[in-house]
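> call design_seq(struct)
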């Protein structure tokens, strides 16, 4: 965060926007000034910065960059003497009326401290910032400085924030934990989060602008995010409210907040994740995939399961206090989203406490029960899609089931069930009967498998297609050698 007098903004049609940095030119120049001043006093740095500002209109930006570098630097007094003690000793020796008297007092004080007069002169104001000597820089990268500047001026703007609406992807736990820690109120429709200020309505919301600023690093550290804020600023002598909009799509550089979030909250979670990856590879699993509206609260499910058009969530409820369990049940009953509840069997909960599917576990979540629920939901989805999908028409001879089902926004299983007459399923494709006849003609009299395989590879087909056109593969040991006409089954 920076002082308000360093905030440089532009107004346009009811909106407000800080002047962000995109070029590394100024950050490089400011860091260069500090690097060259190592071992020198701050007053020399300030003089160099004044020279840099000459003839420029972006002097606020230069001062803001300098302030951020200064905060990340180490400085020391240019003397080992205590400046306060030296000044006290000098003042106790009386008033200075002329240069001779001044020299006499300094020499006398030097004898008292057993130092030279020059050391006393040097120590008088050595504790002032401009007299401090720059010893070390902790910020060396121009890009890092640019990122911190963009974050800091945004935080400074948010000092005057009245309310904020945001959308994020990822980092949910850390964000809501910080919102609660800061005492901010929020409401959500499951997509947007509207933060309206302090939890106590007895206090003025504007005093909590600093809390909005503290929340910002957690927002911009999310995978994708957008902010719409109401900012009160004095314009033309009158307070006015402006819109401030910012998204991760604008490609501004911000520092990533080091948020230490455990990959798994428990051994039970970690083991379940491994089990699911092993036994359900056709599903995609994500930990804490999104937040779900539950009345005035949110639920951040431990896992989300994704396959084609199906999304199912699961929350693991382990060892917690009775108060926590009571609140958790309340949230489940307030949400319209169906969530599987995996509950430790030692907790005082019953199946009827939760509105959706319930699985009880001991030391390990039974993966078979979870897969049974997912398969049941998949079957429901396929049945519904078959009922709601109109006739499917295909023109191609070779159709990728995956690509076509994505195009039609249905599951592959639904497409296979609703395939048009004259098509058959071969592996991950639909083949027209017309194509199969042409394939048989192409193979013709070829019987050597290596030759036939090249024909199949041309269409990205496996040897399963051969069965549909009256051939079977003859094997010699572990190797296919030729194809022969399949004998018809005797009735």
């Amino acid at each position: 965060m920076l002082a308000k007098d360093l905030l440089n903004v532009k107004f346009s049609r009811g909106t407000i926007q800080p002047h962000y940095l995109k070029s590394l030119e100024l950050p490089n120049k400011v860091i260069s000034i500090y690097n060259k001043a190592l071992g020198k006093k701050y007053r020399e740095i300030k003089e160099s910065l004044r020279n840099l500002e000459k003839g420029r209109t972006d002097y606020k930006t230069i001062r803001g960059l300098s302030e951020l570098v200064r905060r990340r630097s180490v400085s020391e007094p240019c003397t080992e003497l205590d400046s306060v003690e030296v000044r006290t000793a000098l003042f106790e020796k009386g008033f200075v009326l002329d240069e001779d008297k001044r020299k006499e007092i300094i020499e006398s004080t030097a004898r008292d401290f057993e130092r030279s007069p020059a050391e006393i002169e040097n120590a008088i104001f050595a504790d002032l910032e401009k007299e401090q000597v720059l010893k070390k820089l902790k910020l060396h990268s121009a890009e890092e400085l640019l990122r911190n500047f963009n974050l800091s001026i945004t935080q400074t703007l948010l000092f005057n924030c009245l309310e904020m609406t945001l959308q994020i992807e990822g980092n949910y736990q850390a964000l809501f934990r910080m919102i609660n820690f800061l005492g901010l109120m929020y409401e959500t429709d499951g997509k947007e989060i509207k933060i309206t200020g302090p939890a106590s309505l007895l206090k003025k919301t504007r005093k909590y602008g600093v809390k909005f600023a503290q929340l910002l690093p957690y927002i911009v550290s999310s995978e994708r995010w957008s902010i719409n804020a109401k900012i009160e600023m004095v314009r033309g002598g009158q307070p006015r409210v402006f819109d401030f909009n910012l998204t991760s799509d604008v490609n501004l550089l911000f520092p990533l907040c080091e948020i230490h979030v455990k990959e798994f909250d428990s051994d039970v979670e970690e083991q379940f994740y491994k089990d699911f990856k092993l036994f359900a590879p056709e599903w995609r699993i994500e930990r804490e995939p999104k937040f779900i509206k539950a009345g005035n609260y949110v639920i951040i499910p431990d896992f989300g399961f994704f396959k084609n058009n199906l999304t199912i969530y699961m929350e693991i409820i382990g060892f917690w206090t009775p108060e926590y369990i009571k609140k958790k049940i309340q949230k489940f009953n307030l949400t319209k989203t169906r969530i599987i509840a995996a509950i430790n069997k030692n907790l005082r909960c019953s199946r009827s406490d939760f509105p959706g599917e319930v699985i009880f576990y001991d030391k390990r979540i039974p993966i078979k029960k979870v897969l049974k629920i997912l398969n049941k939901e998949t079957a429901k989805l396929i049945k519904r899609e078959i009922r709601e999908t109109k006739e499917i028409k295909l023109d191609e001879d070779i159709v990728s089931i995956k690509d076509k089902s994505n195009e039609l926004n249905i599951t592959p299983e639904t497409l296979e069930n609703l395939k048009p007459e004259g098509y058959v399923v071969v592996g991950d494709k639909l083949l027209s009967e017309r194509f199969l006849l042409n394939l048989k003609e192409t193979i013709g009299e070829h019987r050597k498998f290596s030759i036939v395989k090249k024909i199949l590879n041309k269409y990205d087909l496996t040897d399963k297609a051969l069965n549909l056109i009256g051939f079977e593969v003859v094997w010699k040991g572990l190797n296919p050698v030729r194809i022969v006409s399949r004998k018809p089954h005797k009735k």
